[in-house]
Amino acid sequence: MISDAKLFLSTLQKPVCLDEVQKIPQILEPIKMDVDKNRVNGAYLLTGSASILDMQNIGDTLAGRIIEITLYPLSSKEINRSKNNIIDQLFNNDFTNFESLSYEAMAKMVIDGGYPEYLKIENNKLKNYWFSSYISTYIERDVRDIANIRDLDSFIRLFNLLAPRSANIVRVSELASSSSLNIESVKNYLKTLEMVYQIKFLKPYSSNISKRFIKSPKLFFLDSGLLSHLMNIYSIEEFNNSSAKGSIVETYIYTELLKHLGFSERNAELFHYRTNNQKEIDFILTSSDKIIAIEVKSSKTIRKQDFRHINDFKDKEKNFHLGVVFYMGEEVLPFGDKLYALPLSFLM
């Protein structure tokens, strides 16, 4: 096929689906030529486990000829067969249309994440095997082929170092020092992990748009189940006793917000917020002239003090619409004008 991709494409009946296309990037130039010659929307469905637009020289090849849709692991709403969009609900101040769950039920959904096959497994030992196999067969083998990584041991070492850093600002120089790698190798490995949808960076919020690209982003794993596995957490007891509990819950909420942004009726964006005097807010949601500030707590209870940074942000932003603290209790609680504590089950 590779030796004469143009001839191969001419034999196919359109529309056609080509899977794992990132493994044969040579075919994309002939696809471009065919699309330019016979422009029919939907003639090709290209699927794969890596972003072909992030591969070297590929973006230019398909620019203006492709629509990219990212399919993340299942959202909790999908797992529970709910059609509600949490982004739209937040902007519409709709806090009623969800089922309240127990702490244990919420914790289990956080620990399990959203990979469909993993959710079918009940035994914790088998769950361990599943993610171990996922890492060895996909992250190790396929990534090595896609990115031409020769030192696989150092790549996996960095991957494991990232786990306790999810939901935190990560600096390349610190990672290089901790992993005994040079800075360029760390940058390359991080870019590769982004390309294969294992991690993502969240830009900082600033009312001055140009500053959003200057300050440090936060790193997140894209599945709380995989993150829990890397932190050796499979049971609620292990979750409760882990020092990583807070970052796992924040990672879970980030992935849920990210998934719902993709099919929200609004054109919304997600950021994190941090000032020079260490005032932080986990997430900022913006849509036209409305801004929502979101904090995350992994506890069953909530206090007025948990809204202190949101209140400070509220006083500064004229387009402030809502302030929310997600927690692992069971009730919706008002905490003043435009301020609410919402159970994690709102996302489920």
Q: Any overview of this molecule?
A:
By secondary structure, this protein is of the alpha/beta class. The chain contains 15 helices and eleven strands. The strands form three sheets. A six-stranded mixed sheet has the order 6-7-8-9-11-10, with helices on both faces. Strands 3-5-4 form a three-stranded antiparallel sheet. A two-stranded parallel ribbon has the order 1-2. Helix 10 crosses helix 11. The longest helix is centred in the middle third of the chain and has 24 residues, at 124-147. The model has no long low-confidence stretch (mean pLDDT 89).
Q: If strands are numbered along the chain, what order do they take across the biggest sheet?
A: 6-7-8-9-11-10
Global mean pLDDT = 89
Structural class: alpha/beta
Order of helices and strands: HEHEHHHHHHHEHHEEHHHEEEHEEE
**Strands, total number:** 11
| Distance separating the two termini | 45 Å
Cα shape:
globular
> Which range does the strand content fall in?
5-15%
Question: Could you estimate the helical fraction of the residues in percent?
Answer: 40-55%
The total count of helices amounts to 15
Reported for the largest beta sheet, the result is:
6 strands, mixed
| Regions with little confidence, pLDDT below 50 for 5+ residues | none
Radius of gyration: 22 Å
